Automatic annotation (TrEMBL):
Coiled coil: none
Superkingdom of this protein's organism: Eukaryota
Annotated protein name in UniProt: Uncharacterized protein LOC106169546
Organism per entry: Lingula anatina (Brachiopod)
Gene3D superfamilies in alphabetical order: Cell wall hydrolase SleB, domain 1
Stretches assigned to the Cell wall hydrolase SleB domain: 45-162
């Protein structure tokens, strides 16, 4: 009986930690790279909490009815000729990521750790539910509009994070 209970607990632990914060299987090496790239470009100079907050905006969008429901569709969603996550439209950010990754430097390792912690649910979401953020407030991402109400606005590092609900 004890072997069964132990085995069950191990399986439950593996399921919970591999499903991440979402119940969807986001906790994969490929996703760590994808989200790490965004974190590196958007929040490289931020505290670890600020980097984790950026990573969680992706997780929260995957789980939000107003955004695509897969990680790649969220990350690579286009708008106004560029990507939702502006860093992906910046060739110099691509080069900085490639250099950091090739050197396995601390900025690369921290971005990957923030991505992993958010995607696997190892650390809690410092934003509570944010899907959007901006380096200044107000901006279009931090204001309510005819489609969305903004709530739970908070500043983490140099970014303002907001949660959204449909009107």
């Amino acid at each position: 009986m004890k072997i069964f209970n132990f085995s069950f607990l191990v399986l439950l632990y593996c399921y919970l930690t591999s499903s991440g914060a979402t119940g969807k299987n986001l906790c994969t090496s490929a996703n760590f790279q994808t989200v790490g790239r965004v974190v590196h470009g958007e929040a490289r100079g931020e505290s670890f909490t600020g980097q984790l907050a950026v990573a969680y905006t992706i997780v929260n969008r995957v789980n939000h009815g107003g955004y695509p429901n897969t990680l790649n569709k969220v990350v690579y969603q286009r708008y106004s000729g560029g990507y939702q996550y502006n860093t992906l439209s910046e060739p110099r950010h691509d080069r900085a990521w490639a250099t950091s990754k090739a050197n396995n430097d601390s900025t690369y390792r921290r971005a990957i750790l923030a991505a992993k912690d958010a995607l696997c649910g190892y650390r809690s979401d410092p934003t509570g539910c944010a899907t959007d953020y901006c380096a200044y407030d107000p901006c279009s991402a931090t204001r309510s509009n005819r489609y969305w109400d903004v709530y739970n606005k908070r500043k983490i590092g140099n970014h303002w994070f907001v949660c959204r609900s449909p009107k």
